[in-house]
Recover the amino acids of this structure.
């Protein structure tokens, strides 16, 4: 019997739940692979700058990488420039790292992988160049 017909009848609905539960139990037994979903990671105002209320400046537009490790922040505050890249720590006890970028206004990831980041000017940058070279990163090409 085709799999979709078997599930449509509702006879095997518990199999999927058991499979998901077993996978979650195995992942938990292997140890924590991520920061817990409700972890508070404070921004250091000395790194990101202060807003008009004296607290750490937040970005206006924030995009989170597919792996949840990086945040691309537009209008990120005077100390970091127009766009910054923030790297979240591997553990909740680590510090958030801030990287300056060469982007002029707002930047966007290209493709779901974040292999490239593109400035509103159309200049495309290799993602890996931004944490390594920061504002010295050079565009690979300019698209229209």
């Amino acid at each position: 019997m085709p799999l979709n017909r078997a599930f449509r009848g509702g006879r095997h609905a518990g199999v999927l739940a058991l499979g998901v539960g077993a996978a979650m139990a195995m992942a938990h037994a292997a140890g924590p692979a991520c920061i817990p979903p409700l972890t508070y990671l404070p921004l250091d105002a000395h790194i990101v700058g202060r807003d008009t209320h004296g607290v750490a400046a937040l970005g206006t537009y924030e995009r989170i990488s597919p792996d949840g490790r990086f945040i691309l922040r537009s209008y990120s505050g005077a100390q970091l420039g127009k766009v910054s890249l923030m790297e979240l720590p591997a553990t909740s006890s680590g510090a958030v790292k801030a990287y300056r970028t060469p982007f002029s206004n707002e930047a966007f990831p290209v493709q779901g992988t974040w292999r490239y980041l593109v400035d509103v000017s159309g200049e495309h940058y290799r993602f890996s160049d931004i944490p390594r070279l920061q504002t010295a990163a050079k565009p690979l090409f300019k698209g229209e």
Remarks:
- DSSP finds four helices and eight strands in the chain.
- The chain has two domains: 1-31, 45-142.
